[in-house]
Amino acid sequence: MNVKNPKVSIILRSDKVRKDDTCPIYFVVRYRDKSYKFPTEYSSKKSEWIEKKNLPKDMRLNILLDKKKNEFNDWVIDMNRERKPFSLELIRDFFRG
């Protein structure tokens, strides 16, 4: 993959604890030496999160997040194959659906 390709990871926003004691889960895209956060519809308690791996302990949730992450990686491959340039706007559109 090209160095300029966006990379995606998953984080638990423990700085944003909700009333039900859960924290929102975000996708973080690293693109052109900057990080951009995109919220998911999911949340998790800190106690149900594996911090070292940045993954939920809940296997079902892990699969759902991994699926979206793989879709993003496939999209990056397709964009490269079609020789289309990346932009922050296109990346935002991807995560907004």
Secondary-structure blueprint:
Layout: E1 7-12, E2 23-31, E3 34-44, E4 49-50, E5 55-56, H1 59-81, H2 88-96
Antiparallel strand pairs: 1-2, 2-3, 4-5
SSE sequence, one letter per element: EEEEEHH
Main structural class: alpha+beta
Order of strands across the main sheet = 1-2-3
How many H/I helical runs? 2
Please give the alpha-carbon distance between the first and last residues: 24 Å
Largest sheet: 3 strands, antiparallel
Principal-axis shape = elongated
pLDDT average, as an integer? 93
How large is the share of residues in beta strands? 25-35%
Low-confidence stretches: none
Helix content: 25-40%
Briefly, what is this?
The protein contains two helices and five strands, in the order βββββαα.
What do you see in this structure?
The protein is an alpha+beta fold and 97 residues long. Helices cover 33% and strands 31% of the residues. It contains 2 helices and 5 strands; from the N terminus they run E-E-E-E-E-H-H. The strands form 2 sheets. It has a 3-stranded antiparallel β-sheet with strand order 1-2-3, covered by helices on one side. It is elongated.
